[in-house]
Amino acid sequence: WVSAVDLLPEQTVAARHKLLARAAEEQALVMVYHFPAPGLGTVRAVNDGWTWNALKEGEHGR
């Protein structure tokens, strides 16, 4: 996904792919905005993309 004001869309997409791949590989706890509260979860690699796994209330990550 690319914002209409992004000057380097290819670089933006590459950076996001790199970040998501690393988060999935390290099973990192990720904090995101514009998602339902609390916006904490993990990313898992699935086929050609990723899936978001939101932390449920009372979970503490790893």
Write up what this structure looks like:
The chain has 62 residues and is an alpha+beta fold. The chain has a domain at 26-57. It is 29% helix and 24% strand. It contains 1 helix and 3 strands; from the N terminus they run αβββ. It has one helix at 9-26, and strands spanning 30-31, 40-46, 49-54. Strands 1-2-3 form a 3-stranded antiparallel beta sheet. A hairpin with an 8-residue loop joins strand 1 and strand 2. It is globular and about 40 Å long. The model has no long low-confidence stretch (mean pLDDT 90).
Task: Please supply descriptive tags for the structure shown above.
62 residues, alpha+beta, three-stranded antiparallel beta sheet, 3 strands, 29% helix, 24% strand
Produce a short descriptive summary.
The protein is α+β, with helices and mostly antiparallel strands and 62 residues long.
Topology:
Layout: H1 9-26, E1 30-31, E2 40-46, E3 49-54
Antiparallel strand pairs: 1-2, 2-3
H and E string: HEEE
> How far is the first residue's CA from the last residue's CA?
28 Å
Major β-sheet profile: 3 strands, antiparallel
Overall number of strands: 3
Strand order of the largest sheet: 1-2-3
User: Per the principal axes of the C-alpha atoms, what is the gross shape?
Assistant: globular
Mean pLDDT: 90
Q: How many DSSP helices?
A: 1
Rg for CA atoms: 13 Å
Find the structural class using helix and strand composition.
alpha+beta
Could you name the ranges where pLDDT drops below 50 across 5 or more consecutive residues?
Answer: none
Strand content: 15-25%
Q: Helix content range of the residues, please? A: 25-40%
